[in-house]
Amino acid sequence: MKDAYPYPVARIGLIGGGQLGRMMVKAAKRIGCTCVVLDPYPMSPAGQVAGHQIIGGYHDPAKLRELAETCDVVTFELEDIDTETLLQLEREGHNIYPAPALLATLQDKLTQKRFLRDADIPTADFEEMPSADADAFAGFGYPLVQKARRGGYDGRGVSVMQTATDFQHHLPVPSLVERFVEAKKELAVMVARNSMGDCRAYPTVEMCFRAGENVLDLLLCPAAVPKNIASAAEALAVRTIEALDGVGVFGVELFLTEDDQLLVNEIAPRTHNSGHHTIEACMTDQFEQHLRAILGLPLGATDLLTPAAMINLLGEADANGRPVINGMAAALEIPGVCLHIYGKAEAKPFRKMGHVTVLDKDISEARHKAERVRDLIQITGEQHP
Prior knowledge:
Blueprint: E1 11-15, H1 19-30, E2 34-39, H2 45-50, E3 53-55, H3 61-69, E4 73-76, H4 83-91, E5 95-96, H5 100-107, H6 109-118, E6 126-129, H7 134-140, E7 144-148, E8 158-161, E9 175-179, E10 183-193, E11 199-201, E12 205-210, E13 215-221, H8 227-244, E14 248-257, E15 262-268, H9 278-281, H10 286-294, E16 308-314, E17 322-326, H11 328-332, E18 337-341, E19 352-359, H12 363-376, E20 378-382
Parallel strand pairs: 1-2, 1-4, 2-3, 4-5
Antiparallel strand pairs: 6-9, 7-8, 7-9, 10-11, 10-12, 10-14, 12-13, 13-16, 14-15, 16-19, 17-20, 18-19
């Protein structure tokens, strides 16, 4: 490993200009890297911070090539990307992490589940559904969860069906169905792995989801589970990423069943909403850690410095137009509140507009403060004629 780096340390090509990219660009600047962002929307949240953005889509071969040819390493903050172009660029010698083949496996929920099954990673039973068919769903058995093979995120592309009468809410796309898991908790573990095989897990977090939208509402770290359960979750997450031979940071979502069994739900091949608290609460945040991993630098310590609770700030149900942040001053009066606004130009219903991490030595107090902030801050839209 070399130990002399001319500035800039690396030129990072980032596919995707959303909030994950924005926070990654900030971390990149901190360690002496520059970034070029590829996103179809001018002045994207990440592009605002990077200062250099290529305007183009994630499935545009010419734009993907332009990004790769102007950067030392390419990474991404979302899964909906043309992997065929990335595979070709990788064959030509461009550095792309996580690997395009890994992305191709995980961006399709069916191939992801097949990978978990074949690697002996515990997960819910599933079955392919090329088209939604009432008899096939009934044959699989209710309750079940239907997932679109491609394109789902933040609760989109998922339909939970308790009985056959719920079939009317099916997704009319190629999908899979999986056994509905009666989970007493939903957990997540962020895992970092570099090209030398060094692999580190962050402390297990507990996720509470917003009813109706299925978007992460409240995150707690450490999770309120026994130490042996947390350790088992971290070990399972590490085993999963090692089986993938992944390089970068990955979000591993898990179910904890009523009989204390752990099942892997989904894997995100990127930084993740369940790791935002690491910016303030851990020795090395997930965004710097991802950069360390893809640049072949030593991984940072993942120790938790203080308990933390995190909430997402979503656009109100009627939000539309230029964002207006209500209750911000009152929320910032609460000790331990760390506010992140994502710089999105337009508020939309239930769109992620920011997040708040609350630090407190008592996790129950951190949760209480986070819930107060959730009640205080409302993001609406300012309409213009």
